[in-house]
Amino acid sequence: MTVSVAASPAPTPVDLCVDARWIVPIEPAGVLVQHTLVVDGGRIVAVAPTASAQREYTPREHVSLPAHVLLPGLVNAHTHAAMALLRGIADDVALKVWLEQHVWPREARFVSPDFVHDGTLVAAGEMLLGGITCCADQYFFPDAAARAYRQSGIRALIGLPVLDFPTPYATDADGYLQAGLAARDAWKHEPKFAFALAPHAPYTVGDSSWEKIVVYARQLDLPIQTHLQETRDELEQSLRAHAMSPLARLDRLGVTGPNFIAVHAVHLRDSDVELLAEQSCHVVHCPGSNLKL
Ligand SMILES: [Zn+2]
Fold this sequence. Notes:
The protein is an alpha/beta fold. It has 2 domains: 14-70, Urease, subunit C, domain 1 (Roll), CATH 2.30.40.10; 74-292, TIM Barrel (Alpha-Beta Barrel). The protein contains 10 helices and 11 strands. Strand 1 (12-23) and strand 2 (32-40) form a beta hairpin. Helix 3 packs parallel to helix 4 (142-152).
């Protein structure tokens, strides 16, 4: 076959072409070899074999990745980004000891808007270097975290924390909710951000606080994310105190549903697994964390 160059349509100007040795689009499954990603106006307009992309497009910017795999950004589905500044302070201890003897006392002493901004900025940089372009965060001073996320350019689901005990951020559940919702109001038009209510855990947040959280979540159409059944002790304590699992308790309080994100969800009974499925809840496993704590 002969190709008449003169008869070919003029190449289309576009913003960016990225030639990659391999492209893994995820959907559809498979690996594309020697292909080019074509971007214009902030959107992917084509993924084509490099040879044809070079004929069809004239990019304003051209990137060549001759030994790389190009794939969509990874998502970190659970993080406390600012805690990057506390990394390594207490390894190889159980969760209860880690929280009560090491983390919470240091947070009471050090956590401030500057701490959260700087720690989140460090973590966001690390995530971007690792190919993560979106994360689901929950930590104190979400307004400071939002500033860091905007600076870094990463997308974020920003969790608005709720606890029943005082910290430098707030004194009680109402205070946490007020501060969190103010942060959400300040940033809700930022296109790379979404928000969630993020009560710490069933064992650190009482029923009356959960009831308020459910009302706000429904009124504002916000997801609820929480640490759930992270340890066997948490499950056993709940069975003793409430005669039901933490998840069954949250279900009774109206927390479960498609907008509920259960983080960890390690120590589940069969009835918990059924409940999560029936209510179309989301589960985020954190094997690295569970190996550490
Ligand atoms: Zn966590």
